[in-house]
Design brief:
218 residues; alpha/beta; Rossmann fold; 7-stranded mixed beta sheet; two-stranded antiparallel ribbon; 5 helices; 25% strand; globular; binds flavin mononucleotide
Length: 218
Amino acid sequence: MTIWFGLTTIPPVISSLHPPSQDSSDSSDSHGGKKGASARGDIASADSAQKVSTNASVKKDFEGMKLRIIYASTSGHTEHVVHVLKDFFAEKVPKLEVTLQSVESAKPEDLLKGDLLILASATWNIGATEGHMNPHMHTFLYKDAKDIDLTGRKVGIIALGDTRYFFTSRASERIRNYIQESGGTVFGFPMTIINEPYGQEDKVAKWGEKFLTKLQEL
Ligand SMILES: Cc1cc2nc3c(=O)[nH]c(=O)nc-3n(C[C@H](O)[C@H](O)[C@H](O)COP(=O)(O)O)c2cc1C
C-alpha cells in the first residue's frame, strides 16, 4: 500500500501521554536528576499551543517494519526527545513499529532486534573527561555489548549536549565510533540537540521527516 503525505501539520506533541514506563521494555530514569516524566509533564502544558510542521513527503507506510530506539538519559532530556520522536512517527507512519528502550533495561542482543536501530545519548563526562556519551550508554556499549557484531545493521544517532561545555555534543562522534568499530553503518545524519530540548520539538520532527525519507530508500 502506498500512502502520500503532503504538507502536513500534526497535532501538538503531548508527551505527557507517554509516561516513561509505557513501553514494556522502557524503564524510567532511576538514577537522580529531574526525571523524564515530570520534565515532559512540565512542558506539555507550556507547549500545548505548539504545532510541529513538516513539509517533506513520505511515500511508504512502513507496515511490518520495526524500529528500536535504545536511549540513555539522566535528567530526562534524551528521554523527552525520543518520546517526541516516537509521537511524531506514530502520527506520521502509524504502521512503523517503534520500541523505546532505556539502556538500563537493554541486553546486548537488543542491539540486533528489529529492522533498524537508533542509539540516543547526551554528552557527559566519564571520570574526569568530558565529551563522552552517557556513562550508562558507555558501559552498555563498551562492556556489555563489546562483542556484538553490527555487520549489516544500520544505526541512527541522536546526541544531546550543552554549549556550557567545551566538547559540545560529542556523544554523536562517540556513538558513531562504536557503530563503526562494531561493523555497523551509520544511518542518515545524526540528530543533534543542543541545550534543553524543551521547545525544540520542531527540530526533532524535522529530523524524523528526513529519517523517514531516507528509510523509504531502503
Ligand atoms: C556532569 C555533566 C557533564 C556534562 N558534560 C557535557 C559535555 O562534555 N558536553 C556537552 O555538550 N554537554 C555536557 N553535559 C550536558 C548534558 O549533555 C545535557 O544536560 C543533556 O541535555 C543531558 O541529557 P540527559 O538528561 O538525557 O542525560 C554535561 C552535563 C553534566 C551534568
